[in-house]
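User: Could you check the structure of this?
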Amino acid sequence: MLPLLFRLTFTSLGSQLLLYAIAVGVVGYIAFNGWRGAQGPLDAKKGTREPASTLDRFLRAAAFGGIGAALAWYGLKYALPAGAFPGAKGEGIPLHTYGVLLAGGFIAAVTVAGRLAQDEWRKVQLVDGRWVDVEGPKRREQVMDMAFWALVGGIGGSRLLFVLVNWKDYAKDWTQAFSLGGGLVFYGGLIGAAVACWFFARANGMDFLRLADVCIPTVSLGQCLGRLGCFSAGCCWGDVAPASASTAVHFPGAGLAQDLFGRLGGTSSLAYSSQAEDARYVVEATGEILHQAVPGAVRISDWAAQHGHTLGIYPTQLFESVGQLVLFVGLMYARRYRRFHGHILSLWLMAYAVLRSTVELFRGDVERGTLHGLLQSLGSQGLADVVPLEAWYNISTSQFISLCMFAFGAVLLYQKGRRQGEAAGLGPTPSAA
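Assistant: Sure, the predicted C-alpha cells are below.
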C-alpha cells in the first residue's frame, strides 16, 4: 500500500509565483473551454442547435471560469504557506495514490464513453463527395462536455450523502460540511452524477435511457481503478480476518507507510487510523470481535499500536475492483443484444447491487454508516442493542441503497421488456369471444 506518492511544497517565492501562474492558466483554460463549447438554442423541429451567440459564449465562459476560480481558491488556500495567501494552511500539494487512480479511472471512463457515444449515434452521409459521420462526433463532444457536470454532481452528491450518514458529527458545526477534509460516498456520487446527466440530456435533446446505456458500463471501468485507489489509501477496508486467512492484508501506520521514494510519508492508512482508536477486543486466531475482554482476546487499538499496522483484514477494495472489471466486460458484450433503451442500465443496476451487497458482507469500516449506528444517532439505544454491530442483519447504508437500486433495475427491465415484447407482437393476445 502506498497512501502518498510524494508531496510538493511551496516555501520559496519562486515556487509560490509559479503556483499562482499555474492557477491563473488553469482557470483561463477552463473558461476558454466554456466559450468554445457553447451552443445555441435547440430547434425542436429540426433536432439541431443554432449557432451560439456572443452572449451565450460569454455566459458559459463566465460560469466555467467561476467554478474554476472557486476550485483554484481552495487549492491555493490549502497548498500555500501562511502569509502567501489569505487563510493559507501550508499543506503543500500531496500527490496521493488514491487521487491519481481516481482521476485515472474518471479519464478512462470518459474516454471510453465518448467513443461509445460516437459509435452509438453514428450517421454517415455523403458530403462533398465523401462519406462523413455527421452525428457521431457531435455526440461524442456532448458526452465529453457532460463529464464536467457529472463530476460536479458526483462530488456534491457523494459529499452530501457522507454528511447525511454522519450528520451527528456535523450537527455542532455545519460549516465543516464544506471543509476540504471528510469523506465521500460512491452511491451519493452516483446519484448526484445521474441527476446532473439527466438535466444535461434533457437540455440537449438526448434520450436519457439511451445515453445511460452508453455510459453506465464505463462507471464500472472507472470504479475498477478507483477501488485500487481505495486499497492504496486503506479506506473502505474489510473486516478482521482469521490469522490463517490467505487473503488477509495489513495496512500501515504513519511509522511504516512510505512514499514513492522510500521515505516515510507521515500519512497513516485510514484503516490503521480506525483500528488505532478501536476499543473493542479481537481473538486474533479466529478474527472474532468482542465488546468485552475474554481469555485469548486483545484490545484492537493495543494490537495496532504495538505492531504499527492493522490486523489482517479482508481486501474488500480488491474484491470490488475485480468484480467491477468483470461487470464492465460483461456489459460491453451484452450491448450486442440490447432490446430497448435502458436495457444495459437495468442490468447494471441489478448486477452492481448484488456485487456491492456481497462485498459489504466483508466490510469492517463501521464509519460508513449502518443500521445500528443510525438507531444510535436517533437516540434509540434499545433498538440499537437489538441490532448488534457485528450482526449480519446490521445492514449498511450502501446495502440499503443496493436493495432499492436492484428493485428499480428489475422494474425497469420488466416494464421496458414487456413493452418491447408487445410492440413486436409478442404480448398477450385477447381471447376469442
